[in-house]
Amino acid sequence: MELFEAIKNRRSIRAFKDKPVPEEKLMKILEAARWAPSAGNLQAWEFIVVKEQKLKEQVATAALSQWFIAEAPVAVVVCANQNRSARRYGERGRELYSIQDATLATQNMILAAHAEGLSSCIVGAFYEEEVRRVLKIPEGVRPIAIIPIGYPGERPEAPERYELSKVVHRNGY
Ligand SMILES: Cc1cc2nc3c(=O)[nH]c(=O)nc-3n(C[C@H](O)[C@H](O)[C@H](O)COP(=O)(O)O)c2cc1C
Fold this sequence. Notes:
Elements: H1 3-9, H2 23-34, E1 45-50, H3 53-62, H4 68-71, E2 74-81, H5 82-115, E3 119-120, H6 128-135, E4 141-150, H7 164-167
Antiparallel strand pairs: 1-2, 2-4, 3-4
Helix pairs in contact: 2-5, 3-6
Bound molecules: flavin mononucleotide (FMN).
C-alpha cells in the first residue's frame, strides 16, 4: 500500500468482526511501533497486549464502557515510560518527550494495522487509574492510549478535515 494512500484511507473503526488477528500480523504492527522516532532514541514506550476476554472487558469498562474495545480480538495499551525520559531530560522528558515517543509509536501501529488489512481506533478517553490497576502498570509508566485491533465490521465515511489554509501559518502565526 502506498504510504500517502494508507494515511488518507485509514479510518477509526469501532466495530470488529469476530475473527482473530494472526499473531504474525500483530508482531508486524508492534515491529512498526518499535521503529518510530523517539527523543534521544530512548524509545520511551511500552506495549501491553490484551487478548484475555475478561481483561478486555475491564479495560473497556475503564474506557467509559466503549464496548468495541472488548469486541476487538486484541487491544494494545500503549504506555509512556516517563521515568526513562525523565532520567535524561528531566521534567520535559517526563511530561512531553515520553508522551510524544509513545504517540509516534501509536501512529506507526495504526498505519501498520491498516496496511495489513486490519483496523483500529485510538482510544484516549479512559480512567487512567482504573487501567493502571487492571493491567498492573507501575508508577512512572503512564497509559496513554488503548488501541483495539481487528478486522473491520464497518466502513465509515472519512470525517472532514480543516482546510490547510486554516491551519498552516507561514512565517509566524
Ligand atoms: C488522542 C485521541 C483520542 C481519541 N479518543 C477516542 C475515544 O476515546 N473514543 C473513540 O471512539 N475515538 C477516539 N479517537 C478517534 C478520533 O475520534 C478519530 O481519530 C477522529 O474522529 C478522526 O477520525 P479518523 O481517525 O477516522 O480519521 C481518539 C483519537 C485521538 C487522536
